[in-house]
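Work package 3, deliverable 3.1, input record:
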Amino acid sequence: MIENVLPAIYLLASVGFIMAVKWMNNPATARRGVIIGEIGMLLAVIGTLLRVESNFAMIFIGIGIGAAIGAPLAYLMPMTAVPQLTALSHAFGALASALIGTAEFYLRAPHGFSMAALSLETLLGYLTTTASIIAFAKLQELMPTRPLTYPGQNFVSLGVLVAAIIVGVMMVAGTPAPWMFPAFTGLSLLFGILLVIPIGGADMPTVIALLNSYAGVAAAAMGFVLDNKLLIIAGALNGSAGLILSIIMCKAMNRSFTNVLFGAFGQLQTAVAGKTVQRPVRSATPDEAAAILDSARSVIVIPGYGMAVAQAQHKIRELYDALTKRGIDVKFAIHPVAGRMPGHMNVLLAEADIPYDKLLEMDEINGDFPNTDVALVIGANDVVNPLARTDKTSPIYGTPILDADRARTVMVIKRSMSPGFAGIDNELYYMNNTLMLFGDAKNFVSGIVKELAGSH
Amino acid sequence: MQSYEFGLYVFMLAAFLGFELVKRVSPLLHTPLMSLSNAISAIAVVGGILVTGDKDATELTRWLGFTAVVCASLNVVAGYLITDRMLKMFRKREPEKK
C-alpha cells in the first residue's frame, strides 16, 4: 500500500520545493514560498517514516535533538550573524550527506554507477563540511579573515584533490580495499580546509554561495545512490541556486568563474603595497555633514561591510527618517558583493525597517548619481573606487562599481585612510567634491542625526 | 531505461528549472534565498531516516544515520525559521501605526 502512495507524496513534496523557490522572486509572495516549502518537507518526512521498518525511537530522538538546537539558533542569532549561521548550516547539511554516504558504503557496498555517485556525494559532503567550518571561523573572526597563504599552496591543494579523486576512481573501478574509504574521507576533509584557508573576508560572498551549491550537489548525488528522485530534484534546485549566486558574485568582482570554482587558485593574493604617499584630503565634522545633507534634495546612501561591523543600520534608519521628513529623497545603492554574503546589506537594512523599495541594485541606480546631491558612503570602499573604471594597471580594473564619484558631493564615513580589502588606494577620497568623515560609522551617523534634530 | 539514466534526466531538468527560477529572484532576497535553498537541501533528512531505520543496519551505520538525522533536521528547522524571520522584516512602506 505505502509503496504505491509514496511516489505521489514525494511528487507533491517536489512541487512544494519548486513553488517555494519560484515564490522567492518577489518579497510579496516569498513568505508563502516558505510555507509551501515547509509543507513539502513535512510530506517528505512523513512519507519516509511510513516506509521505515525499525528503529523509530532513534529517528524521532534525532529529529527532536535537531529541532531543539535549530529553533533557538534561528530565533536567537542576531541578524548581523546571518553569514556565520549560513556557513554553519552548510556544514551541517553537507555533513549529513557525507555521513549517509558513508553509512550506505558500509551497509550495501555499492558498485558501478551507484559507487561513483556515492564517491561524489561523500567527496563534496566532507569537503563542504570542513570548508564551511573554516568559512564560519573566518566570519566569526575565530581565525584571521585575511587570506592565509604559503609557498606552493596551489600545488599542495591540487595534489590533495587529485589524490582524493584517484582513490575515488580506484573504489569505483574495483573492489575497495579497507583502507580506501577512510583515506578518501580524510583527503576530502583536508581538501575542504585547504580550499578556504587562502580566501579573504571580502571574497566570502562567492565562497558561501559556492559551498551552498556543493551541499546541493551532494544531496542530489545521494538521490542517485538511494534512487530517490525527490532528493535529486531538491539537490539540483539548491545546486543551481548556489551556482547562480556565485556566478553573480564573480561578475560583481570581475573574477573568472573557474578561478573561484576551484578554490581561488591563482587569485590576486598579493595585496599591492599601496603607495604610501600622503595626499591631502578634505574632512568634515558631523555638524558640517548635517548642514550639507539638510540642504540636499536627493541623497544616495552606499552601505558596505563597515556598516555591518559598526552595527550602524539602526542609526542609518534614524538618519533616513530625519531626511525624508524634510522632503529629501533618500535611496540606498546596494553593490552585489557588499558585505559577507549575497544580499547581506538588504537583510540588515530591512531589519532596521527601511522599506525595501528604497534598496536599489547597482544597475538600477547608477544612472541616478549624476543627478544626486549627496552620495553618502558608509563602510564601503573598493566598490566605489573609480580606479576600477579608469586605471588599467589597477588590480580592480574592470570591476563594476557604484558611480558615487559622479554625485555632486560625496561624503565617506571611514575610520581612517587605510585601504580596503584589495589593498589599493581609493581615488574617490582625493576628489575635490569628496569630504571624508572620520570616525566610527554608528557614532558619526548618530552625530549627524543629533545635529539634524537640533537644527529643527 | 535504467533507473540512474532516468535520474540523470530528472537532475538535468531540475537543474535547468532551478536556473530559470533563481535568475528571477531579486537581489534583495539573495540571503533568504540561500537559507531557503539550504533548508530544502536538508531533504537529506530523508536519507538519514532510511539509513537509520534500515533493518540491516549495523551499529556503525545506525549511528552514522542518527547523526545525519540530527544535522539535517537541525538544518530543516533552523533554515525555514530563519528564512521566515528575515522575510518578515522586508516591508514595502512604513508600517501603519496601529
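The two ends of chain A are 75 Å apart (CA to CA).
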